[in-house]
Amino acid sequence: MPLRPLNREQAWLLPPTLGELIPDDHPARFVAAFVDSLDRAAWVELGIGPDGEPLGAPAYHPRALLSVWLNGFMTGIRSSRKLEAACRDQVPYLWLTAWQHPDHNTLWRFYQAHREAMRKLLKHTVATALELRLVDLAVQALDGTKIAANAAGDRTYDSAGLHRLLERTEVAIAELEAQNEGGDDPLPPRLPKELQQAQALRQQVRDATSRLAQHQTMSKVNLTDADAQLMKARSGIIIGYNAQAMVSPLNQKAVKGNGMLITAAEVVNSAADSGQLVPLLEQAEDLSGERAQVTLADGGYRTAANLEAGKRRGQTLVMAERYQGEVQAPYFKDQFEYHTATDSYLCPHGHRLPFRGLRKSQLTGSRSIRVYRASRTACRTCPAFGVCTKDKRGGRALWIGPSDVLLRKHRQWMRTDEAQGLYARRKELSEPTFGILKDQLGARRFLLRGLANVRAEFALLATAFNLRTLWRIWVRLPRQFWESKIAVPATNTRDCPTNSGPYSTLSADSV
Predict the structure, then answer these.
(1) Alpha carbon distance 107, 422 (integer Å)
(2) Do 236 and 374 reside in the same domain of the chain?
(3) Within 10 Å of residue 412's Cβ, how many Cβ atoms?
């Protein structure tokens, strides 16, 4: 067959517009539409003046810079240098910036100044979905995942390790100072680089030692990112953070398909999930303005305190058992039958465990734990001795706290078909969400350091996830469906008002 002509010097006979280079259903068009739909109040909330300043050097328009960052998070590009290259080489970014080329310093200054406020964009994505009735808030699923920090694992020390490192650093500083003081040569105008680094390390070690002393729950600290903690992930022990996300399904009738929307996102430096249920429930209600009827979560969230919180809030919590092996044991305390008349329990072999007294609770400090114990003689002659209990002196004991009744009722309800059917939906919501965040948005490792910065980074990742979801709906549904909610994307931003400030640049490519 004949070959198509190939001429790399061929010029365009008629220069195309920027809009002709981007398909109508391209994600960049939806990003631009979303940014253009933000009203003045939203820009003020982000701490950005949309009208610019009358004085100063011309600056890139904040609509262009915000669009670049959102599109970058949607496509897995979270580095300012890589975004600079994309604004120079990739057509979607050229269209978003109207063929301008902001450098990495400009992009970074914008991101650094507003990333904390940009967390509020997540609420705008949820509000858009709710206004168009695209999301079903009747059910939501909560889960967490461990994400590696931007920190070296070999720079994690305990108190003893910090003490040894400080001693070595002090010796190194003394040697470097002695080398610079010897001879008749005048002192250098500034400290040598090696000495500066050693002194900075010494201060870093001192700060880390003080941090360990102030936080008794911390056993180790990382010198690269002091907020990151050792956590167990699927790949092993990592230095990282615990990222949490609340996810709701889309309204299948409205969107004519499946999908998920993140309605709450948070990052903590505690490996335990149990303390994050209530804060995420409250955040999801705040962002959506509605309280979901059913919340699905795995066993890591199942505690008496969380069940009581769900009862107070009027929300049904569908949570698996935390310790499956213990509950399924033949002589777990649920297998003992309580008799109200005698205030005693009956074991599976018919031995009675009468009430023996109260013990102090480790959580509340009050004497609220009721102890029931069988006789030593009955247990030692029982065929289950050695399995049910190995206590030769006192026999089998049951420690019953105030929350045992609630835990037992929830455990019994979780065995019903209704609960099992609801819990089966958890994997359809939480696990695909984190899979997309990690594999497609590149969220296997944070790029920023410090808990506050990491929280802002993950909030933007959640915003990007929601934008991808909304874009897929935007492509499928008629454009008239969106016109009143999402602005028509501009194809050229050169007529936008200029803005001076920390992102201003002296390049000829400025607006």
Answers:
(1) 44
(2) no
(3) 11
Q: Are residues 298 and 423 in the same domain?
A: yes
User: What pLDDT shows up at residue 325?
Assistant: 72
Which residue from 290, 267, 368 is spatially nearest to 129, judged by alpha carbons?
Answer: 290
SS3 320: coil
Residue 99's region, left for phi above 0, alpha for psi from -120 to 50, else beta, is: left
Contact at 8 Å (CB) between 223 and 205? yes
What residues make up the domain containing 94? 18-132
Q: How many helices (H) and strands (E) does the chain have?
A: 18, 13
Q: Are 429 and 422 in contact (CB under 8 A)?
A: no
pLDDT less than 70: residues of the chain: 15, 177, 180-192, 195, 216, 363-366, 479-511
Per-residue confidence (pLDDT) for residue 446, from 0 to 100: 95
Specify whether the CB–CB gap between 242 and 144 falls below 8 A.
yes
pLDDT at 511: 27
CB atoms within 10 A of CB 425: 15
Is the CB of residue 140 less than 8 Å from the CB of residue 284? yes
Question: How confident is the model at residue 484, as a pLDDT?
Answer: 59
Whether 163 maps to a domain, the answer reads yes
Would you give the end-to-end CA distance of the chain in angstroms? 48
Q: Dig out the tokens for 464 from the structure.
A: 């990007």
* 68 belongs to a structural domain: yes
Quick: pLDDT tens for 253-277: 777 778 899 999 999 998 899 999 9
308 and 435 inside one domain: yes
